[in-house]
Amino acid sequence: MHVNDKRVLRICRKYDIKSNIKWKLKSCTRGDRNPDHIAKNYLHREFHAEKPNEKWLTDVSEFKYYNGIEVHKVYLSAILDLYDRRIVSFKISDHNDNPLVMDTFDEAVRQEPDAHPLVHSDRGFQYTSAQFYTRLKKHHMKQSMSRVAHCIDNGPMEGFWGIVA
């Protein structure tokens, strides 16, 4: 399933789901204090891909919505292909946890079974987990991570969140 960012934006607007990424003072992920795996930054802000499924970016963003005066949070995990900026897969959950990211990744693999991209993320706890690293290795994918406190290393993904908000 391929989903255009405009469709995600339309759905978020329909259900009054808003990202707080624009409102946070710190939008960079600090990372897990005890990571299982840290990868080098192989992407080096080279945000151009020559072909589909060459470079994928991934991230999770928090959105708040209101039910009356009660505030709720949902988390959107997405994988973006740098070739055409399409969303390869996405999942929404009430919890920001490993299953959210693993389900997003598994869906991307189902959609693109022959893909072996460089997968770039921030250093969030899900992406530094042994579980995520093992999944990447199983599918012969190379992992790349942003440097600490350098959100721009994952710039197009952060830009996508700005569009969705």
From TrEMBL:
Entries under SUPFAM superfamilies matching the protein: Ribonuclease H-like
Domain of life: Bacteria
GO molecular function, one term: nucleic acid binding
Residue stretches making up the Integrase catalytic domain: 48-165
Entry's Gene Ontology BP terms: DNA integration
InterPro entries: Integrase_cat-core, RNaseH-like_sf, RNaseH_sf, Transpos_IS3, Transposase_IS3/IS150/IS904
Pfam families in alphabetical order: rve (PF00665)
Listed NCBIfam families: transpos_IS3
Protein name: IS3 family transposase
Highest classification ranks of the organism: Bacteria, Bacillati, Bacillota, Clostridia, Lachnospirales
